Amino acid sequence: MEGVRRLVAAAKGPGDLALASIHWGSNWGFEIPEDHRRFAHELIERAAIDIVHGHSSHHPRAIEVYRGRPILYGCGDLLNDYEGITGYEEYRDDLALMYFVTMAPGTSRLARLRMVPLQIRNFRLQHPGSSDRAWLASLMDRECRKFGGRVEAVDGALELRWA
């Protein structure tokens, strides 16, 4: 962690945001391993990372807001080379989210996190129907509640709420 801290300190100037993009976790499932959570917290606490972007899963996973900074544990796919592979239908890897993170100026704290639901069909993105958007909203709300957040549908998109 000390090496990451030094690299961030050397590169991050006043008003800059530092984002760590990490390929971690399994391709399928919603469990967030405790060591991933600890590592993400340490990145924020010790290395001054402002946004933790996790990727590897082929479907969206929970989001946590820790010390005012977002941790996206698994963002899923926008391009999916798994299309047509069977055995994982319960995860709905055809449904995707595009994430729009707004940080408060001068504080490096999360101000807003908006997600736009999309559906992947024939390697193309399209807007999903209302029942698919509702399924995705329910899923994200269930998973984010485990970390003290909740997700609400707002004007065809999803918004993260946190304390």
Protein model, in words:
The chain has helices at about 1-10, 35-45, 130-145, and strands at about 20-25, 50-55, 65, 70, 95-105, 110-120, 125, 150-155, 155-160. By secondary structure, the chain is of the alpha+beta class. The chain has one domain. The mean pLDDT is about 95. It is built from three helices and nine strands. It is globular and about 45 Å long.
Structural key phrases:
163 residues; alpha+beta; five-stranded antiparallel β-sheet
- How many domain modules? 1
What fraction, in percent, of the residue positions are helical?
A: 10-25%
Query: How widely separated are the two ends?
Result: 28 Å
Question: Count of helical segments?
Answer: 3
